[in-house]
Amino acid sequence: MMSQVKKRIAVIPGDGIGPEVIREAVQLLELLRDTHGVRLELTHFDWGADKYLQEGVSLPDGALAMLSTEFDAILAGAFGDPRVKSNQHAEDILLGMRRGLDLYINLRPVRLLGAHLTPLRERAPSDIDFVVFRENTEGAYCGAGGFLKKGTIDEIATQEELNTRRGVERIITAAFEYARAHNRRKVTMADKSNVQRFGGDLWQRVFKEVAAQYSEIEANHQYVDAMAMFMVLDPAQYDVIVSNNLFGDILTDLGAALQGGLGLAASGNIHPGKVSLFEPVHGSAPPLAGKGVANPIGSILTAAMMLEYLGYEAASEAIEQAVAETVGARATTRDLGGTLSTALAGEAVRQRIQVA
Ligand SMILES: NC(=O)c1ccc[n+]([C@@H]2O[C@H](COP(=O)([O-])OP(=O)(O)OC[C@H]3O[C@@H](n4cnc5c(N)ncnc54)[C@H](O)[C@@H]3O)[C@@H](O)[C@H]2O)c1
Q1: Choosing a second label site near 7 at 20 to 30 A (CA), which of 118, 229, 283, 334?
Q2: Is the CB of residue 36 below 6 angstroms from any atom belonging to ligand 1?
Q3: Hey, which residues does 280 pair with through a beta bridge?
């Protein structure tokens, strides 16, 4: 169903190639107003390295409150600039939004758009088509730990992992809800519960409890080391994968490689029902910035994810279809074997959007 209410989008292009690729995604969103009746109000924000260097401002005061009350979604490019060695602005802006808005789902689709893109031999697009639900707010990335006798031969460093019942339950539930809504037949949880006995035990118990509420969906478990192997040997077995922050981080990079590289990979940082953040997986790629060679497809597929989240399913599918045709026709940037500039690669997708 097409929503009649105008959705409010905060657009934060960021640094490096961010503005170049986000420009293509924005032009596509503007086209979809005409072809699919998508009703969006786009507001641009100049948060990034330039602003940080000129004004000392990274994530402005009051930004999180503004985003959560005045916007439905955020479309971001990438953050990171060689002039800011500490990377402080990127951390403040990106982690600030992920943590401050409690965006507990990191959703990363892994979908092969053309057999020529994967480094795996003899794989068809139907063999690589799954989504990863990575827990995005706790686990090994919570910053808990410390040093004892730092700098001495007896130094001890501890690095703790936080798993809350609430945090584990909500990411596993999100994975099953997604499977149900998208007719996926299986959810596979990856952990290391054979050695990480406490956190692993919690994940195991919660997974079984949640799975029992979704009897039509197969609930499957693999140790994460085995999953890394099977993602390469037999990726067709996966539908929906759910894992913690650390393992999800690693598995999704492997997934990005299987689908053809960073230029294509899209992601959502989601809290269902609340303002959520959509961004390409790649960074600001400073050596490519300003040259018009960056691949805009990661950002374009990110815009498609955002539209689906906002209830514009038909428009989202139209983008995915147009991108698949573009990639099939090799009308792409150089990283995917084409010859087009960023702007022409974006234009190639727009030309293939079918009117609804
Ligand atoms: N989410 C983010 O904003 C994010 C993520 C990763 C890295 N970063 C930051 O970006 C900066 C550069 O980091 P990096 O070099 O490790 O990662 P990167 O993703 O920017 O680039 C890695 C490689 O991938 C290629 N690449 C990336 N995006 C591409 C695209 N759209 N089209 C074609 N090729 C593409 C680049 O040529 C580069 O060789 C750093 O400051 C880093 O902190 C930001």
Answers
A1: 283
A2: no
A3: 266
For 150-160, write each residue's pLDDT tens digit. Answer: 999 999 999 99
Q: With a 6 A CB cut-off, is 284 part of the ligand 1 pocket? A: yes
Distance CA 329, CA 316 (A): 20
Residue 308, both tokens: 């689906």
Q: In this predicted structure, what is the pLDDT of residue 177?
A: 98
Q: Of all atoms in ligand 1, which is nearest to the CA of residue 279? A: 1
Catalytic site includes residue 92: no
Distance of CA 260 to the CA centre of its chain: 15
Q: How far apart are the CA of 298 and the centre of ligand 1, in A?
A: 12
Residues in the chain, pLDDT under 50: 1-2
Q: What is the pLDDT of residue 5?
A: 82
238-270 core/surface letters (b: 16 or more CB in 10 A; e: else)? bbbbbbbbbbbbebbeebbbbbbbbbbbbbbbb
